[in-house]
Structures are given as C-alpha cells and as structure tokens.
Amino acid sequence: MRILIAAAGSRGDVAPYTGLGAGLREAGHDVTLATTDAFAPLVREAGLGFRSLPTRPQGQGGVEGRRELMRAAAAFVTELGRGFADAVDPGTDLLLLSVTTAPLGAHVAEALGIRTIGAYLQPTAATGAFPPNVMGTRSLGRLGNRIAGRFALRMADRVYTEAVTELRSRLDLPSLAPSGMRRRQERANKPVLHGFSTALVPRPADWRAGLDVVGNWWPYVAPERRLPAEVEDFLAAGARPVFIGFGSMGAGHGERLSGIAVRALRRAGLRGILQSGGAGLAADGDDVLTIGDVPHALLFPRVAAVVHHAGAGTAAAALRAGAPGIPVPVTADQPFWAARLAAIGAATDPIPFASLTAERLADALGRAVRQQTYARAASVAAQHMATEDGVGAVLKALG
C-alpha cells in the first residue's frame, strides 16, 4: 500500500511520525512523510520518502497569548493549504493525517478519491471527561467540558476557513466550510487513532465510535545510534543527573533559563544536563553539561528526573523511561499534558513558564528526585506503556 503521512508544526508534531512510518515500512508498505523542509533529515534517516509541505515550522519558541496564537495559526495553515495538494500523489492509497493537516487533507482526499485515517497526537474531540487541551486545565464539569470542547472545535474551524476556501477552489470542489467537513466526518464515524498512552489519557467513554487511543508512536532512532562520548563520560562521572530542556520553546529566554537551571541544580545539590533547544540553553561547569540534539529514548532512562516544557512527545518520553517529571508548560496543549502527568503522580505540580524561578525549580527538583513516590508512579506508567502497540494498531486499521 502507498501511504502518505502528512504532518506539520514543530519537531514534536513531526518526529513521532518517523517512527510510525518506519514501522509501516517494515511491514511492507511504501511510506512517504510530507512535512516541512526543516525535518527532511529526520524523515530520510528513518528510511522514508520525503515530500515538502510549503511552510515554516511552527513552535519557534515565542511565549504568546491566545489571540496571538490564533492569528499565527491561521497564517500558518493558510500558507500550508496553498501547497498541500501538490504534496499528494494521485497514486496514493491512504492518507494518514495529523491534527494540523487533517482539516486540509480531507478535502484533497475528496478530490482524489483517497482513503483517510486520522493519526492524532492530541485529543481534540469534545468530551465531558476533561476540558479542551488548549483551553486550560480546570474542569468545567461534564456538561461544561463538552460545551467548551465544541467551542474549541468551532475556533479551529475559523482558523482553517481561508485555507479550506482556497484549497477547494483550486481542487474544483463545491464550497464547503471546515465545520461542514468536520460534521460530515463525525456522522460517518471516520476513524481517528490517537498516538498517546491510556496511562495518561484513557479513552473517554462519551467519544463517538471510530475514535481510539492506541499508544504512542515514538520518534525513529537508528539501531546503531549511541549517546555521544561526552555524554557517556558525564553520566559515568557521578550520580544520575537531571535533564533540563524546553524543546523548541523559550526563544529569547536562553540566558535567563540557563541561569535559573544552574542555580536550581546547585541549590538542590544535583548535577544537570542542559539541552540547548530553541531557547539556546548553555552552561559550563564540572556539574553541568550542555548538549545539542540527543534522542530522548537513549538519554532519559539514564537520568534522575526530567525538567521539560510538557510537550506531548517529551512528556511521554520521560514517562516511558520511568523518569519523574518537573513540567514547566509554556503554551498551547502543554498545560494539559503537564496536568495529566501530575494527576497520575509521575510529576510534580506544574510550574508555569512565566512563574519559573531558581527557588521553585530547586524545590521541585528536590521532591522529584528524593521522594520515591514520583519514580514509582512513573515506573507503573512505563510498564503500562510497554504493553501498547501504536504502530500495530495502525496496521490493524489498514484492514
């Protein structure tokens, strides 16, 4: 089967599909991943075909309010929609669509007669079980959560309106609003597989048929990949260090975050590994090592705790390693994942990015590393995650 996976956004929005694609390829399918040019090396390293989507990556690390996020998202998807059809080969048998690309891919699939399956990294369907993942973490009660969930879907429809209008015109399709396509797919119980663990988000009982939670798709890591020698040397030189990284978040805050990290580590009496990331973290010292891009799957099982921005992928990677978390959410769905980690006892209470201080971080580090309840909860979740087979669930859905 010729499969095209379409994903766009930050690295965390794309990297899990390299592992999914590699698994599908190993099962005998011809797999191409369409995404932005910045991630072409990740795609090719996984042995997948690459097709370019015409836009910059999201998530460059700004700390923005909700209105700014909505404005930036609309510009992002409008640019994405203008070239989306070019990325889809008419000979494609199946489109696997992410949260970001699904509202566009559905229209291309209609024009070309291609089957689609949603492959989402976040829960987006309205439910009474929890509020929308982009609207805070305070439950509004079952009815209130569902109302808020439907409102969030309507806001997403607005973000895609211009892009969908232009795309359908280009495809010579009759006019149809994003909300119309969404309702059509809901009535048809179109399948959507969610690539996160039921250890963090059990499938809500009030979701419609066709919506399933299948377990994570992990970023591809070559079998021969190893940690750099300098990292191995640092790990061997003392007690397990703490990992501190903010992914693509925190641009322009590197100096402040680096200072906070070092002061917190030393106040807590811990060693640390700082991952530079979008913030540009950097520090020197016998007790601190600064690194660049290193697979979390290789490093996280070797650390005492993980300080992170609570992106879905990083949160899951820490949990998979059985490492206690100290979440410092910045924006979007990050407060949601941070709250889920804390709710199962695998992480300390979240420290909002704007409220982060060396004192608060040091206190959280001390508790996460020295109170074994966090490590035990993370270990239980890790064992649960090991029983899930996200790639196998997609293969089963192919029929």
Describe the structure.
By secondary structure, this protein is of the alpha/beta class. The protein contains 14 helices and 12 strands. It has helices at residues 11-26, 40-45, 66-84, 102-112, 141-170, 178-187, 229-236, 254-268, 296-299, 312-320, 334-343, 358-370, 372-386, 390-398, and strands spanning 2-6, 30-35, 49-52, 94-97, 115-120, 192-194, 211-213, 242-244, 272-275, 288-291, 305-308, 325-327. Strand 2 (30-35), helix 2 (40-45) and strand 3 form a beta-alpha-beta unit. Helix 1 (11-26) crosses helix 14. The protein is globular, with a radius of gyration of 21 Å. Residues 58-63 have low confidence and may be disordered.
What Rg is obtained from the alpha carbons, in whole angstroms? 21 Å
Mean pLDDT: 94
Strand proportion: 5-15%
Number of helices: 14
Percent helix, as a range, is 40-55%
Overall 3D form: globular
Give the class from helix and strand content and strand pairing: alpha/beta
